[in-house]
Structure to design on (307 residues):
């Protein structure tokens, strides 16, 4: 009963902190909109705001911000960095107590796990978002072609797209429409959309629209041709993914098996992992990790066939 109550208390505490964070963030966003609308000068901010600005200027934080944009996550990069640092310290303490190893090796292991896990999650989410967008591109090209053929402008056709399409592409098009309404040109808004989502199909559609809009011509016919090409590409991609499913599964399981075996050995013989905290053990870990990473990369590259 006590472990259940402890877990419930920890969950309620984490949920309360999360709700407090989102409340403060929403209030800060509302104050910023009011200050911008009234033309008031921006205050210096408290200590936490200065820390956020300092963290946001780091090169690693800027790369993380680009990954967050491609994953379509509206989380401030400075808040995420501070959260990851706190999670790294907590995970290091848990690893140090659970496996009876020193804190510094636990901290290095926890940092690598948090950084690697965050990168994998953001890249996977971005790839999933791009795949979902690519799956809707043929329908989007057809709807836009019909809108242009009916006499609507490109901007009006994008408005129809935002209303007709479901997520994830519908809200992204709606954001592009809002940017045009706020004063951005069609070229700037569409380029921003193509840069935000790593999808070759979306880039093809954007390039077709911009070229036809600048040079003139039969935009509806060009969009129909793009829709047909996208349908054929999706069919070929489905066949390729079916043929490479075994290789992708092997690449995913390759780094998991050694870690699972090491944890099972340490559970059977407590302190077994402690030898890896010594200099020779760290060298073996580095060599093993490099070989595992090389194997994952080679298998992944072999199974990754672009259509």
């Amino acid at each position: 009963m006590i472990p259940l109550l402890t877990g419930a208390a920890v969950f309620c505490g984490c949920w309360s902190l999360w709700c407090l964070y989102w409340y403060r963030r929403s209030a800060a966003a509302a104050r910023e909109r009011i200050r911008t609308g009234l033309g008031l000068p921006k205050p210096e901010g408290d200590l936490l705001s200065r820390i956020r600005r300092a963290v946001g200027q780091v090169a690693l934080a800027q790369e993380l911000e680009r990954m967050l944009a491609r994953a379509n996550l509206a989380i401030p990069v400075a808040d995420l960095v501070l959260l990851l640092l706190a999670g790294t310290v907590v995970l290091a303490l848990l690893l140090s107590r659970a496996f009876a190893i020193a804190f510094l090796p636990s901290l290095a292991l926890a940092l690598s796990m948090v950084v690697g896990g965050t990168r994998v999650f953001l890249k996977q989410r971005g790839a999933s978002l791009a795949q979902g967008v690519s799956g809707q591109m043929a329908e989007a090209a057809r709807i836009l072609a019909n809108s242009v053929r009916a006499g609507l402008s490109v901007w009006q056709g994008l408005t129809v797209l935002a209303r007709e399409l479901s997520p994830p592409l519908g809200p992204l098009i709606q954001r592009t429409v809002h940017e045009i309404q706020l004063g951005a040109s069609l070229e700037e808004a569409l380029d921003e959309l193509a840069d935000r989502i790593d999808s070759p199909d979306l880039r093809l559609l954007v390039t077709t629209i911009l070229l036809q809009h600048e040079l003139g011509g039969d935009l509806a016919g060009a969009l129909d041709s793009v829709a047909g090409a996208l349908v054929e590409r999706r069919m070929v991609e489905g066949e390729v993914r079916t043929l490479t499913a075994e290789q992708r599964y092997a690449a995913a399981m390759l780094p998991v098996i050694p870690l699972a075996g090491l944890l099972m050995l340490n559970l059977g013989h407590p302190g077994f992992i402690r030898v890896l905290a010594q200099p020779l053990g760290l060298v073996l870990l580095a060599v093993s990790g490099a070989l595992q990473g090389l194997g994952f990369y080679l298998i992944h590259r072999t199974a990754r066939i672009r259509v």
Summary: The two ends are 55 Å apart (CA to CA). Residues 103-149 form the longest helix (47 residues).
